[in-house]
Every structure is written in C-alpha cells, then in structure tokens.
C-alpha cells in the first residue's frame, strides 16, 4: 500500500491525478490548482476542432471566379447578392460581410454572414483575421493528420513529428508566471486555478497539461451534494498529506464555482455544439470573478469543423461560435477587463479550396485564425489593418488544390503573447520552443 503522506513530486503528480479523477465522479470539476499572483492580463484560447474551412468562415474569396468554379455547390454569395441556387437544401443565409482587400494582390475577402458579432468586432478594430496561415511551414510532404497537427498546436513546437504531449504551451506560460518553468511544482495556498479548461471533455485539455497545476470544468456544479462521500474520503486520507490537501482545495474550488455560477442557467453546458455558448458564459463568469479565486487563462473547444461532405457543413456552427465569443467579450467589457484580455481562435489545419465528390472539402494546408483583444497594444488603427497575411489568389493553388500558407501562426501567436504579457525573447522561446519559423 502506498504511503500517501510520504510521496515525492513524481508520485504526487501521479496520485493527485487519480484523486482529481475521483473528485470528478463526485460531481466536482476535474481540477488541480495554481495561482498567478498579481497577473491582471487574461488569455482565452478557442480550439475549432476538425480543420476549419477559411473559405467558408473568415477569409472567403467571394469575388474570384475560380471560387465558384471550385465550389459550385458550397460557395457563399457576394455581399448583397440575390439568393443562390439551393440544390441540396443548404438554405440561403445571405451574402458575406466584406472585410477588405488583401495586401499586394488586392483580392477581396469576406466573412460568413452568420458571424454577425465577430464582424462587428472587426469593424470595431478589436478582431484581426490572420488569413493564409497555418501552424507551421508546410513542405512537399504534407501531413494532414488531425492528431499530429493538434499535438503541434497544443505543445507549441514547430517541428514535423513533434509528438511531445507531456506539456502544453499554455501550461509553460502559467509556469513562467509561477516561477516554475524549470522547477518542480509547489502546492499552492489558495484554490485558484491559474488555467482553466471549460469544455465537455472528461480530460484536461492538452494545451494546459503539464507540471504547473491547472483545472477544468466538464460539468457545471450548482450545489454540493456529496457530503457523505467526502467524509469517507477524509477518514481514509486523514487530515494531513498532499492528497488530503488536494481534496480540501478541490472542495474549496467547488464552493468557489458554485458561488460564481449562482443565478446562471447552465443546463445546456454539455449539449453537443450548442453547449459552447453556455461554456463561454461559464468561462467568462469564472475569469471575471473574485480576483483571489479567478483563473487567468481559459481554453474552450468547439468541435464539428471536419467538413468532408455537404451534410457536415453547418451555417449554424458559425452562428454558435459568434454568439459564444460575443458572450465572452460582453462579460469582459462589463467587468472592465477586455482591455487586459487576448482571445485566440485557431484550428489544427484548414481545408482544400475545391469541393470533393461528396460536396464537402478535404483536409487542407491553410486556414484563417483570429486574435480578438481590447489591449491597445494588440489593436490596429484602421479596419484595413484587420486582414493580416499574404494571399496570392486561387490561381496559386497546387495540383492537390492546396494553398500554401504564407505565415506560421504559431510564430505570430508567440509574438502576440509576448506583446500582451510583456515577455522577453527568452521567455517567449521558453513558452513556445519553435523552430523553422517563417
């Protein structure tokens, strides 16, 4: 039998994970704990899982003739254009929002008409679209594995075959502020998770996984109804020891969550896709809560972007994304925190520019990512600066109908994180140890 009062750090991490899993079965969040003393800046990362199609969402080349030729059944209309032929019951959602012309080629790009709130943020110079980008520099040996590219997005390592899942880059960022970037984890004295995953998943999001404790909410807690089980655990663990301390901090965090979400309707939290809107509300409520217990960073995930067929394309998915992010921004503004917040929206890769035989699209090499912020250092002076990137048109596609990315978004993100948090070059490299940057 293991002596729970005499664990070293490696054993503690192993057994605390088991204890956190036990707490999840009690109806508690699967949560470990950390603090970021004095950190006022906030960071939110939203993963669009599946491979988001930029030509359907945030960088639609609506005025190129080849766009309709390559996507005769799934193109989006020009601004103000009459209803398109509805061959597959796809519906008519109206024309795209015009964003502007790309630098150099002066090709107009648009945003999906269901992204009403996101377009308004673009108009307010709070949202930038990083088009024709991806997570790394692609070469002739294109890899389009969801798993491989998601791992690259989580660990912040820009090398082919990077399969190190031991630590996510957001966990390294938390460790930087906790002074733990190269040292062991210390048991904190409060129940405030520095980083918080708010998803329906039953595991800690990999971007937060690592040495620095972080937490998750995979089901909202509105009341404490497990007193008997907690009493039994306490009698087994005793009053001292690391695991007993973890349980106590878990209970305190549960009470903090209950208090923070009091009066909020969280019944839709675990609903497929649409639950994302509620998850955004929960994340925003936690981030703007009591400074002593509020997390500094959060990660959310909206799945459903793997559009291999016409039936998988969803105008409603764009609407849900826009409404969810609007929940975040509205709550942050009301709490006077938006100017200290950076929101990142990205996917593991993009889609091919041509539709396939199922009237969907296959995995592709370029995407569009978003950075949304009220931080004056991240905002731009004119709407024309809201489109960032070099796009040479659909004529530049290769024989596989891929557009090669002209920027490395992980490198862009590392730079923007440095600006937002005031990181040195060495600190940025410690958070995202990238190589082969574009």
The H/E string reads HEHEEHEHHEEHHHEHEEEEEEHH
Distance between the termini: 53 Å
Number of domains: 1
**Largest sheet features:** 9 strands, mixed
Shape: globular
As a percent range, the share of helical residues equals 25-40%
CATH topology heading: Alkaline Phosphatase, subunit A
Q: What is the number of strand segments?
A: 13
Q: Please state the second-level CATH architecture.
A: 3-Layer(aba) Sandwich
Question: How many helices?
Answer: 11
**CATH class value:** Alpha Beta
Gyration radius, rounded = 22 Å
Strand content: 5-15%
Q: State the secondary-structure class.
A: alpha/beta
Give the integer mean of the pLDDT values.
80
Please mark out the parts with pLDDT under 50 across 5 or more consecutive residues, or reply none: 1-35, 180-192
How would you describe this structure in keywords?
11 helices, 438 residues, 9-stranded mixed beta sheet, alpha/beta, two-stranded antiparallel sheet, Alkaline Phosphatase, subunit A
Describe the structure.
- With 438 residues, this protein is an alpha/beta fold.
- It has a single domain, classed as Alkaline Phosphatase, subunit A, CATH 3.40.720.
- Helix content is 31%, strand content 14%.
- The chain contains eleven helices and 13 strands.
- The chain has helices at residues 9-25, 65-70, 116-123, 146-155, 169-177, 227-237, 242-261, 275-287, 315-334, 409-421, 425-431; strands spanning 42-49, 97-101, 108-111, 127-134, 195-198, 215-217, 297-303, 341-347, 350-351, 363-364, 367-373, 387-388, 407-408.
- The strands form three sheets. Strands 1, 4, 5, 6, 7, 8, 11, 12 and 13 form a nine-stranded mixed beta sheet that branches. Strands 2-3 form a two-stranded antiparallel ribbon.
- A hairpin with a 6-residue loop joins strand 2 and strand 3 (108-111).
- Helix 1 (9-25) crosses helix 7 (242-261) and helix 8 runs parallel beside helix 9 (315-334).
- The longest helix is centred in the middle third of the chain and has 20 residues, at 242-261.
- The protein is globular and about 70 Å long.
- Residues 1-35 and 180-192 have low confidence and may be disordered.
């Amino acid at each position: 039998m293991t002596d729970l009062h005499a664990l070293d750090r490696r054993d503690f991490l192993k057994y605390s994970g088991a204890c956190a899993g036990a707490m999840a079965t009690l109806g508690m969040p699967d949560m470990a704990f950390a603090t970021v003393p004095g950190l006022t800046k906030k960071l939110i990362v939203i993963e669009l899982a599946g491979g988001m199609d930029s030509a359907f969402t945030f960088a639609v080349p609506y005025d190129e003739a080849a766009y309709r030729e390559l996507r005769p059944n799934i193109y989006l209309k020009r601004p103000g254009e009459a209803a398109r032929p509805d061959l597959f019951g796809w519906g008519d959602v109206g024309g795209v929002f015009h964003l502007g012309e790309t630098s150099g080629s002066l090709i107009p790009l648009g945003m999906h008409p269901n992204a009403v709130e996101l377009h308004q943020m673009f108009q307010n110079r709070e949202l930038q679209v990083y088009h024709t980008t991806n997570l790394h520099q692609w070469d002739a040996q294109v890899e389009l594995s969801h798993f491989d590219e998601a791992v690259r997005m989580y660990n912040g390592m820009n090398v082919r075959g990077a399969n190190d899942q031991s630590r996510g880059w957001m966990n390294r960022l938390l460790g930087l502020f906790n002074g733990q970037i190269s040292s062991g984890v210390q048991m904190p004295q409060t129940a405030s998770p520095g980083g918080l995953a708010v998803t329906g998943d039953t595991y800690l999001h990999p971007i937060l996984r690592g040495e620095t404790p972080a937490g998750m909410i995979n089901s909202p807690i509105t009341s404490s109804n497990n007193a008997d089980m907690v009493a039994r655990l306490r009698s087994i663990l005793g009053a001292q020891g690391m695991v007993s301390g973890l349980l106590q901090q878990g209970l305190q965090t549960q009470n903090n969550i209950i208090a923070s979400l009091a009066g909020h309707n969280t019944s839709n939290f675990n609903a497929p896709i649409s639950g994302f809107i509620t998850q955004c509300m929960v994340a925003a409520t936690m981030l703007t809560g009591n400074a002593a217990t509020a997390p500094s960073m959060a990660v959310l995930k909206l799945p459903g972007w793997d559009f291999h067929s016409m039936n998988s394309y969803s105008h409603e998915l764009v609407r849900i994304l826009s409404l969810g992010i609007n929940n975040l921004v509205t709550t942050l503004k009301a709490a006077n925190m938006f100017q200290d917040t950076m929101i990142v929206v990205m996917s593991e890769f993009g889609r091919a520019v041509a539709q396939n035989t199922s009237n969907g699209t296959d995995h592709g090499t370029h995407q569009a990512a978003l950075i949304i912020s009220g931080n004056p250092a991240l905002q731009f002076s004119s709407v024309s600066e809201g489109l960032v990137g070099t796009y040479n048109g659909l004529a530049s596609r290769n024989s596989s109908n891929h557009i090669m990315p002209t920027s490395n978004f992980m490198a862009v993100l590392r730079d923007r994180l440095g600006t937002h948090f005031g990181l040195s070059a060495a600190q940025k490299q410690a958070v995202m140890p990238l190589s082969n940057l574009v």
